[in-house]
Design a protein that fits this description.
Chain lengths: 389, 243
């Protein structure tokens, strides 16, 4: 089959690779119908996340049609059209049973890498480094999905691919970030970053009952999406002296009730922010991530919530004193997608959420390297490139 | 006796990803290297850790090397630092069930297959083979020395093993609804001299990794009925289906 492979730093190629096969009894094989870029991919593409190997098939946000089914698969059937969250989860372990799916204990076949780095390993991810298991990714004609009964979600008839594709990652991540905010009527939620995850977090905050949502970014086309698609008020942080002060003024001196950091989302994998200082130039980081999180902490009202969707490894000058003295609650996680996909599908079906506007550029799989290039450089206002095998 | 282990874990550690891991670790810790699987516990540390668990201590009383003094062991030509390694894992199943699964024919072979080829020759005897890239195999037999249903199982290599070793798995109820805490302890006494060196560096450099992975594989088998794998995983590498 054809698949997008990582061959070294900034060297992506579409190549011939062997077709995936059913290996374990709970696997299915999916014929991919659509997949999308994610900012977190840029870090290993640029060579700042280790444990990639030449020839790895990448891509962790995809959907498709089930074409083969392992003998222990009970619910998923051949011909089903499904969307698949990026974390592979077993459904049986303590973490899965407590809705903490990205912490699943049973899906990372190479757990020692993370154990050495984080203390305990998380679940595996498709196409996202060997630290996260080394599974082949979804920018391909076919992909193997383990534990299919837990990890494949049937797409209701009548919904288009681009309406549900982002339920694999951006939408559940944003929704989880909003849920972390424990929103009450009248609450104001500020969201740093108006990329795919940030925009989904803004819309989710409204779905969960927020009164006001304020978006902070600097790219005009993203701020426009935040206003027009997510109904947010916006702050271009390059146009103000102090984001913290502006937010304070906008909220009667209190500060937002909760602040969501969706800036570092690109780094949602190994969290290469630990290489932040060295990496930021090479990565063309468009904002100072540490600064965004610091702003969020300072802006948040006393007793409010800090919801961190971006990833931070080692951060110097982290204002812990501000968190402590202001009594903030900090919530953070990699997406527990399997918890949120069913309710997100309902929102999409009822027309309350339509993430298809994130698709700004479409490519055949053969042109995926170009799609990543445009996405990385935000050429032509690119928010997400999608690939159709 | 060049390379005795060529499993995926070791390849991952030793060949491809070690460099990357080191890069990552040095970035993370500013040079304080976290080398995967290479932390070796001292004998003293291990004994201390074991002594804290009455159950394990009882089980280990039979382990000759551990109860002999360091001097005895030197006189036998063994290293003062016996490569022994222990890991614990929590599995969401009752101890009885896990004990039965461990004893089922085939389970151990599946759980250890990342590192050794196991065949059960009888209820008490297991044959172990660790193969190397040059076709050199290291083989030994182990015999179960102690078994307590739902509690522990202890085995030792039989007389004449080139690499004498012993193992112990214990099952202890975990608090709340966590299930069972399973501890696996492996203990090797490599022979002295050049052969000992080779065994140490090639096989025993990563016992931590082996024990840790064996436990994780057992857990996944017990909790989900299968072991996660990237076998036959598509990639553009040469021999792509070999990971
Ligand atoms: Zn993603
Ligand atoms: Zn799980």
């Amino acid at each position: 089959m054809r698949a997008l492979c990582w061959n070294g730093i900034n060297d992506l190629r579409v190549e011939n690779v062997p077709d995936p096969e059913i290996v374990n009894p709970r696997d299915v094989i999916l014929k991919v119908t659509m997949s999308t870029t994610c900012g977190s991919d840029l870090h290993f593409i640029d060579g700042y996340i280790p444990t990639m190997r030449e020839g790895d098939v990448i891509g962790h946000e995809f959907m498709g049609e089930v074409v083969e089914v392992g003998h222990e698969v009970k619910k998923v059937k051949k011909g089903d059209r499904v969307v698949v969250p990026s974390f592979i989860v077993c459904g049986n372990c303590w973490y899965c049973q407590h809705d903490l799916y990205s912490l699943c204990d049973n899906t990372n076949p190479k757990p020692e890498v993370q154990q050495a780095t984080f203390g305990q390993p998380t679940a595996g991810i498709y196409g996202y480094t060997h630290a996260f298991g080394g599974y082949a990714g979804g920018h391909a004609q076919y992909v193997r999905v383990p534990h299919a009964d837990n990890d494949c979600f049937l797409v209701p008839d009548g919904l288009k691919d681009e309406q549900v594709l982002f339920l694999s990652d951006a939408a559940p991540t944003g929704y989880m970030g909003a849920e972390f905010c424990n929103i009450h009527p009248g609450d104001t939620i500020a969201v740093w970053g108006a990329g795919g995850v940030g925009l989904m977090a803004m819309q989710s905050a409204y779905l969960l009952g927020a009164e006001r949502v304020i978006a902070i970014d600097r790219f005009p086309e993203r701020l426009q999406l935040a206003r027009e698609k997510a109904g947010a008020e916006t702050i271009d942080y390059t146009q103000v002296d102090s984001v913290v002060e502006v937010l304070r003024e906008m909220t009667g001196g209190r500060g937002p009730d909760a602040c969501i950091d969706a800036v570092g989302m690109e780094a949602h994998g190994m969290g290469l922010e630990y290489a932040y200082d060295r990496a930021k130039q090479a990565l063309h980081l468009h904002t100072d991530r540490g600064e965004a999180l610091r702003q969020a902490i300072l802006a948040c009202r006393k007793g409010g919530t800090l919801s961190i969707l971006g990833v931070y490894g080692v951060m110097d000058k982290f204002p812990l004193g501000s968190i402590m003295n202001k009594g903030l609650t900090v919530r953070t996680a990699q997406q527990h997608g399997q918890k949120y996909v069913p309710r997100l599908l309902e929102h999409v079906q009822r027309g309350e959420l339509d993430p298809s506007y994130l698709v700004t550029h479409r490519f055949p799989l053969e042109d995926a390297p170009r799609g990543y290039e445009m996405f990385k450089k935000k050429e032509d206002g690119c928010v997400r490139s999608v690939f159709i095998p | 006796m060049k390379a005795l282990v060529q499993d995926e874990a070791t390849r991952l550690t030793a060949r491809v990803d070690k460099e990357q891991l080191e890069k990552m670790a040095s970035v993370v810790l500013g040079g304080a290297l976290l080398t995967l699987g290479l932390q070796r516990r001292s004998l003293g540390g291990t004994v201390m850790a074991l002594a804290s668990s009455g159950l394990l201590y009882r089980g280990l009383r039979g382990l000759r090397q551990l109860t002999s003094s360091p001097r005895d062991r030197r006189e036998e030509g063994a290293r003062t630092e016996t490569p022994s390694v222990q890991h614990a894992i929590t599995i969401g199943k009752p101890a009885d069930e896990l004990y039965r699964l461990w004893r089922e024919p085939g389970t151990l072979a599946q759980v250890m297959s990342h590192f050794a080829e196991l065949s059960t020759t009888s209820a008490e005897y297991t044959h172990w083979r660790v193969s190397g890239p040059l076709g050199q195999d290291l083989e030994w037999d182990t015999r179960i020395e102690e078994e307590r249903a739902g509690e522990l199982l202890r085995w030792e290599s039989v007389e004449g093993a080139l690499l004498p070793n012993q193992g112990l798995v214990s099952f202890r109820p975990a608090p709340g609804n966590w299930g069972t805490e399973v501890t696996l302890h492996l203990d090797f006494q490599p022979p002295g001299g050049a052969l000992g060196e080779a065994v140490m560096t090639r096989l025993l450099a990563v016992p931590d990794l082996l024990v840790n992975r064996a436990l994780r594989r057992f857990k996944s088998l017990a909790e989900t009925g299968e072991i996660p794998t990237t076998e036959r995983n598509p990639s553009a590498r040469q021999g792509a289906h070999l990971h």
